[in-house]
């Protein structure tokens, strides 16, 4: 667990966010008193794989790319 003061956190914000997103717990303090803890959002593990949904869409309506009835007046 890393502890940084507010000024350090402000100066290195992008790197701190990257570190937290990888799972490191970051504590931001003021006058050596912890104020907040920066941790990754649950469910954001980065396990998405391009193409992993292939063959999950079985059919698409023939007019899928067509104009919706509600918007025909605007065309």
Write a short abstract of this structure:
This protein has about 80 residues and is of the alpha+beta class. It contains 2 helices and 3 strands; from the N terminus they run βααββ.
Q: Secondary structure elements and their pairing?
A:
Blueprint: E1 2-5, H1 6-11, H2 13-21, E2 26-30, E3 33-38
Parallel strand pairs: 1-2
Antiparallel strand pairs: 2-3
Pfam family, one: PhdYeFM_antitox
Family: Belongs to the phD/YefM antitoxin family.
Function: Antitoxin component of a type II toxin-antitoxin (TA) system.
Architecture overview:
- The chain is α+β, with helices and mostly antiparallel strands and 75 residues long.
- It has a domain at 1-39: YefM-like fold, CATH 3.40.1620.
- 20% of the residues lie in helices and 20% in strands.
- It has a three-stranded mixed beta sheet.
- It is elongated, with a radius of gyration of 23 Å.
- It starts with a strand and ends in a 37-residue tail after the last strand.
Distance between the termini: 57 Å
Radius of gyration: 23 Å
CATH class of one domain: Alpha Beta
| CATH topology assignment of one domain | YefM-like fold
Spans with pLDDT under 50 lasting ≥5 residues? none
CATH architecture tag of one domain: 3-Layer(aba) Sandwich
Shape: elongated
Strand content: 15-25%
Q: What structural class do the secondary elements suggest?
A: alpha+beta
Q: Average the pLDDT over all residues and give the rounded result.
A: 86
Order of helices and strands: EHHEE
Strand numbers in spatial order across the main sheet: 1-2-3
Largest sheet: 3 strands, mixed
> How many β-strand runs?
3
Pfam families: PhdYeFM_antitox
InterPro entries: Antitoxin_Phd/YefM, phD-YefM_TA_antitoxins, YefM-like_sf
Protein name: Antitoxin
Function: Antitoxin component of a type II toxin-antitoxin (TA) system.
